[in-house]
Amino acid sequence: MCKRLRDMNSKIMYSHLTAAVAGVLQTVPSNLSWVRHVDGSSTELSSYEAVASDGSGREHLYSINVLDGTVLLDGFPPGRLPRDITSHPLYIRTFGSVDFEVFNTDQGVLVTTRPVNGRFYEFYLSVTAAEGQPSELVITEQDRETGQQLQLLGVGADNSCQPWGDQMPIRFKELYSHWLSRQQNVIILRARDFQEHDVYHIISYNPDASASSAVTCRCWRVPPHLQAHHWCELLGRHKATLQAHVLFVEYKESHVLQVLSKFEQKQFIHAYRCTTRRGSSSQTLMAFELPRFGLEFELHDNGQLASKQFKGYCLHECQQLVADGAARYTLPDFDRYLVLHRCAELSCAHVPGSGRADVLVLVPAGPVQPGWATGAKVSVLTDCAVGATLQVSTVRLRPIRHLSYLPGWLYLLCTTATRSTTGSGLV
Q1: Which of 257, 341, 252, 244 lies closest to 285, judged by CA?
Q2: Beta-bridge partner residues of 59
Q3: Contact 168/161 with Cβ under 8 angstroms?
Q4: I need a surface site. Which of 28, 58, 306, 339 has the fewest CB within 10 A?
Q5: How far apart are CA 310 and CA 355, in angstroms?
Q6: pLDDT, tens digit, for every residue of 5-19?
Q7: CA-wise closest residue to 411 among 350, 354, 367, 377
Q8: Does the model's pTM come out above 0.85?
Q9: How far apart are CA 248 and CA 270, in angstroms?
Q10: In the Cβ-directed half-sphere of 304, how many Cα atoms lie within 13 Å?
Q11: What is the 3-state secondary structure (H, E, C) of 250-277?
Q12: pLDDT value of position 279
């Protein structure tokens, strides 16, 4: 092979070298100008090099040896991520056990050799760290097609997201990964798995604000039918559809929250300020979401809290079941339910199987725990996990004519039986 090196070099074209390097490094520019290495005696060698900038604007040195096929970037061959990075809590939370082939740049940054779902990833581990704390890991996501770069934010050992996001609801902290765009001054909330790019919320912030108020800003909820779009599109041609933003602090003392919290824990209830359009007019409403149960209510100007899942129904002023209109509660030892009544002012769309009942009772689905043994109230046991998906039993009151809701009715009677009472006041 060495004897034929001169003949081989004479037949090599620059395009062949670029294609060979691109088979290892997919960030190689297509117009590389190669220069052959020579030794001190001007003897031509088997290695070539070229200098060019990649898609992110950084200048790199590309090298290849045509005899043994070695490819170098900035003098380093591709390799795997070191254990210090793959064992870092921030890496494990988003990338799990996935490992990448990377090359080392002259700045000490490790860059993936190939894109994953159209994105390249860069990793940089700081040398110094506080005693007892892991070194700071900086992870960025490069979208070469749009030229946008996102930095993965850390949530901390306790998922508190301090100091940048400590005011966010707990589900926002634990269920999502958080990607910062310094170019657009936004934080993108996606699934924790790095390969899932659907956008669930977009937080816009003011970079000139003080540290104490940096994230008391707008957090927009992305409608389900737009979550698969690129976040740049959501901030561009779809920006007008981002009409509901989360209230982090302002609703904590809301009377509505006090009512809904007997059905769901406060920390899992989200409040939004929504702008709805009807024809040429627009209206701003408050909305309260119980995401684990898939329920949402809108607070109208007349004070009625209308259900979005049960069209034509709103929360009843009296949230206790009263026997035969008397001031005697049917379930005095059980209150984890919501009472809805039919509202003439709202659009009365058909509710499947309900027979347009005047009253609907929503009860969490789960095992019923009697309270007579401990003297406590009757309770329904539900999953306490932040990301749990919970079901609702729907009970239609007066009369029972449709068997489709009979299971829910029997379920409510079961809660009655746990306190040794009868359900005669409900029929």
Answers
A1: 244
A2: 53
A3: yes
A4: 58
A5: 13
A6: 566 666 677 788 888
A7: 367
A8: no
A9: 8
A10: 15
A11: CCCCCHHHHHHCCCCCHHHCEEEEEEEE
A12: 61
